[in-house]
Amino acid sequence: MNKVKIEIYQGILIPMGFDPEESIEYFKKLLSDINGTQINFPISPEIKVKVRIKVLNSLRGQKRKLWKLYKTHIREEIILKFSSTIYFKDQNFEELKSTNFNSNDFYLKHLLIPNFEKRYYDFIVALDIARVGALHPGTGLLFSNGFFLRPLKPLNLYSIDILSYSLEKKWPVFEQLNIHKTWSWYLTKAFPKGIDEISSTNLSRAINAFTYLYQENISEQERLFWTMVGIESLYVGGKEAIGEQVRKKAQIFLGEIKEFKKRLTKMYDYRSAFVHGSKDFPGYFHIHDGLDTFDKFIEDSEDPVQVAKSLLLATLQKMAKYELDDLEFEYILKTKSS
Prior knowledge:
The chain is an alpha+beta fold. 46% of the residues lie in helices and 15% in strands. The chain has a 6-stranded antiparallel sheet with strand order 2-3-4-1-5-6, sandwiched between helices.
């Protein structure tokens, strides 16, 4: 039997004084809840491991040097250490017999470790759904048997902004969910055909769309596109009155909007103008961000994008809370007696 110890060191940016008080509270609670806990990581049908999470204030030695080398944020970070020792049988790939590649080395480099890293990203998504506003991932490093492999992908969803927006506008309302229950929902309800399969349900399409908000250097247009893909997969049936469907169904599921009531309508007006080619926007190679026209574009797009992000994330969170795998709406005819 072979074994490998895999470690991930993930920085979490410490909230600043200008962040909402709720995000500072949620950040502290997250660290308290997650420190010392174990999470199930199903790596493959044959391999299911437990990953221990530990909160660290800093790193030492070579890891500290690597951390400074790859650190991209000025803000201070608390470090989450994810570690697991995985046992696996000798591998025997027929295709490698005529080559100089060792089957075990190939399995580690191209299958086991990448699958572990992918499951880690899955867990971060589930964590963001459960604890909106509690974390903003910073620098991440991946190690195998003590040797540095590579930095992790940048994870650029800043859920504190989404929380701030919802608090300011008083809709939608976010909660702090149980991490283990949310992760269980993510593994079982969200991807019924397997977590590494492409999407096959409305919920898995919504989550996969949501994951694109983590990508580096994503534009406002791309944010709006992917959030609307996620929203429409959950709320829209058919091709008629799409905006009206979202406006009504979202308030049925998430509660009525008491203030700033036209936000959903404006979001969909903006989406329609953009998709149908009547909205001006900068080109891919645009660099002159000091133009008045560019400032106007950013100003106009900010609110629709924030509405879309908060709506999608709040919907996913409520589905996780009640362990739902889909949303179904039906009309009820009410008659008044004379």
